[in-house]
Amino acid sequence: MGCMTTSQTPIAMTIAGSEATGGAGAQADLKTFQALGVYGCLALTCIVSFDPKNGWAHRLTPVDQQTLRDQLEVNTTVYDLDAVKIGMLGSPDTIATVAEVLTEQKPRRIVLDPVLICKGQEPGAALDTDEALKAKILPLADFVTPNHFESLSLSGLEAIDTVEDLEKAARIIHERSGAAVLAKGGVRLDGDDAVDVFYDGQTTEVLSAPKIGEVQVAGAGCSLAAAVTAELAQGRTPLEAARAAKDFVTRGIEARISSHAPFDSLRQINRLA
Ligand code: PXL
Questions:
Q1: Is the distance from the beta carbon of residue 48 to the nearest atom of ligand 1 less than 6 Å?
Q2: Any idea where the Pyridoxamine kinase/Phosphomethylpyrimidine kinase domain is (predicted)?
Q3: Among 20, 38, 55, 57, which residue carries the largest CB count within 10 Å?
């Protein structure tokens, strides 16, 4: 099959939702893969469009389970995937489908962006989804990229206010999941730098870069996890992948696209640009 293709280009699949404006979700993932030299394919889980007339609330249309299953089937059949990224799943049903397929045939290098709620959603709005994600998807992950809110939820800590707290959260999440963890402090911790903590059971590394601007940037979390996925697909170690991904996101925020929403969109800058 695939006659005469001897390409060594790494291939990654994202399992993610569409976010229409292209800032976050599957669009961000595929653009990130492309920018970092990885061929991307997609299993779409849901379609999100923010509502400009209602405070940019999420309007979410799920993809039906058979259609999701079909996409997972064809992508895992057609390619020997080098890595898989899991982004927004959106419902307990989708989580069950993805967990079932990935357990039957576990791909190499699963990166989980544990999207519990999105910017603007009510915390606690989707508790059953959160619980299903922790129970069924987290154990499959080789690498996990929780933001501040997700780190609280996954670690059970009551507060994460300092870099030391974030290190503690990363250790707890590693112990619970076995995965390498990149816990993102982002703009949530005080100070001039956006600080993230990497922990894989051996190495703790604090990654920091100056905070940029005042406007929130959509797609930073998606692009970070997608960049980790792309780097792992190319054979980098988890720590190398974390460092490269942080750098990619910092450059993408610097080059962000401004918009009429209260958040800008990260722009994925080609490694060679
Ligand atoms: O940023 C998390 C995220 C992931 N995936 C989709 C989204 C969002 C946030 O809006 O819409 C599809």
A1: yes
A2: 21-257
A3: 38
* pLDDT of residue 128 exceeding 90: no
- Residue 230, pLDDT > 80, answer yes
Q: 24 CB under 6 A from ligand 1? A: yes
Residue 120 has pLDDT above 60, yes or no: no
Residue 58 has pLDDT above 70, yes or no: yes
Q: Does the CB atom of residue 87 touch ligand 1 within 6 A?
A: yes
Mutate to test the pocket of ligand 1, among 56, 94, 115 (most ligand atoms within 8 A of CB): 115
Q: What is the pTM of this model?
A: 0.94
Q: Is 19 in the pocket of ligand 1 (CB under 6 A)?
A: yes
Question: What spacing in Å lies between the alpha carbon of 270 and ligand 1's midpoint?
Answer: 22
The structure tokens 């061929």 sit at 39
Structure tokens at 238: 């988890």
Domains of the chain: residue spans and CATH: 11-256 (3.40.1190.20)
Q: Which pLDDT value is given to residue 123? A: 55
Helix (H, G, I), strand (E, B) or coil at 33: helix
Among positive and negative, which fits the CA dihedral 52, 43, 252, 108? positive
Tokens at residue 134, please? 């922790």
Mean pLDDT of 102-117: 92
